[in-house]
Amino acid sequence: MSLRFGQIFGTFFGVGFIPVIPATWTSLVVALLYYWVPQLHNVPGQVIFAFGTLLIGIPACTALEKRYGEDPKQATMDEACGMGVALLGVDPTLMNVAVAFILFRIFDVLKPQPARKLEELPGGLGIMLDDVAAGMYTRVSMLVFVSAIAAFG
After folding, report:
1. 119 by DSSP, 3-state: which?
2. Domain range for residue 99?
3. Which end of the chain is less congested by CB atoms within 10 angstroms, N or C?
4. In this predicted model, what pLDDT tens digit does every residue of 15-54 receive, in sequence order?
5. Is the link from the previous residue into 92 a cis peptide, with omega within 30 of 0?
6. Closest CA to 22 of 97, 105, 138, 102
């Protein structure tokens, strides 16, 4: 893939070029999109977003890695995908989206196994899959959170 492709898509439309905490900014942008865009309020739209960012993100992040080095901070399509996975099937209330955002950032930074191992995969695959794992950890945590709110709420 071309560097231009990576710069557009791998950076989640330029958010990855924000000089300070670009991964957090990308995660926040996706959380806000999920909250405000009606097409992301249903599971088919959410699946298309999560799967689409994964398919585009692998080659786009590979292109960025060739230009900027291993797992560059500019490559933030992985956060977009991970947040998409984290929010799959979650009711788009402000509370749910905010909790998912916070949990995802924690899991993305801590990278509990096997996320850390997935990060070792080559190129864009490793860049993307550790965040998919963080998104899955977040999604499971959200099931617990939503169930607790329903039970005690």
Report:
1. coil
2. 3-152
3. C
4. 999 999 999 999 999 999 999 999 999 999 999 999 999 9
5. no
6. 105
